[in-house]
Amino acid sequence: MFATYLIGLREGLEATLVVSILVAFLVKSQRRDRLPQVWAGVGLAVALSVLFGWLIEYTSTSLLSRSEDRELFEAITSVAAVVFVTWMIFWMRRAARSIAGELRGKLTEALAVGSLAVAGMAFLAVIREGLETALIFYSAAQGAAGDSGPLLALIGGIVTAVLLGVLLYASAVRINLSTFFTWTGALLILVAAGILKYGVHDFQEAGVLPGLNDLAFDITSALDPSTWYAALLAGMFNVTPAPTVLETIAWVGYAVPVLLLFLRPSRRKPAPATTTTTVAERGADTGAEAEAEADAATTPQRA
To answer: How much is the average pLDDT of 286-299?
Structure first.
């Protein structure tokens, strides 16, 4: 359940920070009259994300009657989830410096067009996070079918993210978001490695890949699946005591190089001169740009 909580926390905080940037910009621009359109776009994005998650689950449980088809569907969604996780982590790391300015520019253009444009802009800013969350959650929760625990953990992560976003917006807390996103990004890479391993296993069960009975090792005697720590490792990172050769190759082949690339220090450009901003705007900017700047947790100042 920790894996799904982490997914909800990470994706939820990214979406919350995006919304904070939009709201802060409208408040500072004296355009509070457009806030209802922003919330309407956000609400529609959340609703469609929930619908997308339900559709994936419905397709797997109701539309696919053959077990081989269901295994193949789950394998494909697992690979897609890994692609989305990897892209999201590295995109956020690269684009964090400019995302706030890009959102303000797009919102300025939308304000000039009208209410529907504002709602549409807010919708597009949030829907990506929502669809990613639904897909990654479905793939990460496969091992707990029929259990409501992963769903509750995901909701808990999202609620935590929203509370953190509100507190950051109000400058009520100080969090080094650069460190936060680095650690959660590294943990999500390990979660994604487990999802990929699960997908390879599903491909093997569907008959697409060989080697279902070719075990890389068997440490069941040392890592009893019935113990709490074995269940924790399996639930978080899909580490099992008797994986196949292809599962092990997939896990290690993804986790090691991606972790090295993600944790590799990036070259920094000289930071531009800062100016004093409002509490709301600085709080939102800090959240959006924190992954690229280690000092993003400085206390916001009032104008």
So the answer is: 38
Helix/strand/coil (H/E/C) assignment for every residue in 147-160: CCHHHHHHHHHHHH
Question: Which stretch of 89-98, 150-159, 162-171, 202-211 has the lowest confidence by average pLDDT?
Answer: 89-98
**Burial of residue 273, with CB atoms counted within 10 A of its CB: 0-12 exposed, 13-18 middle, 19 or more buried:** exposed
Q: For residue 275, give both structure tokens.
A: 């100016």
Between 96 and 252, name the one with better pLDDT.
Answer: 252
CB count within 10 Å of CB 145 equals: 11
Enter the tokens of residue 45.
Answer: 């994005």
Rounded to an integer, the average pLDDT of 254-270 is 82
Q: What is the pTM of this model?
A: 0.74
Q: Is the pLDDT of residue 172 over 60?
A: no
Percent of the chain at pLDDT > 90 equals 22
* d(C-alpha 303, C-alpha 285), whole Å: 15
Instruction: For the chain, give the secondary structure using H, E and C.
Output: CHHHHHHHHHHHHHHHHHHHHHHHHHHHCCCHHHHHHHHHHHHHHHHHHHHHHHHHHHHHHHHCCCHHHHHHHHHHHHHHHHHHHHHHHHHHHHHHHHHHHHHHHHHHHHHHHCHHHHHHHHHHHHHHHHHHHHHHHHHHCHHHCCCCHHHHHHHHHHHHHHHHHHHHHCCCCCCCHHHHHHHHHHHHHHHHHHHHHHHHHHHHHCCCCCCCCCECCCCCCCCCCCCHHHHHHHHHHCCCCCCEHHHHHHHHHHHHHHHHHHHCCCCCCCCCCCCCCCHHHHHHHHHHHHHHCCCCCCCCCCC
